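Chapter review. Work through the record for Ni,Fe-hydrogenase maturation factor before attempting the end-of-chapter questions.
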Amino acid sequence: MRSDDGLGFRVWEELRARGVHAILSGPDLPPQITDFDRVILIDAIDFKAEPGSVFEGRIEDLDVLEARSSTHALSPLSFLKIIKEVTGRPEEAILIGVQPKSLEEGEGLSEEVEGAVSEVIDRVMRLIGLEDEA
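Structure tokens for Ni,Fe-hydrogenase maturation factor:
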């Protein structure tokens, strides 16, 4: 219900439609996160870019994003970084972030963020080795 913060849900729907097993976690990451070798976190992230801009990086390289605004009490990025530092798992954690236009109350993604969904899907498919099957 916070406009572009629905990015994760929108991408999750598309991945499931393509037969990709994806977990929708909401504001909190699932406790079994350490059971996975690789986690790809998808979130609307304010990294001070043009709305709809897509950013990809390994979580251990993303200190600059710590202070971002979030609709979550503890951002999923912060939580994942803490879990990885404490447990060493998952072995690989990647963030694909999209610059939101709005995180205000409202339904549906902005045109800019909706336009970035296909790029996010392409990046996920590449990361999981299924880009030729998309």
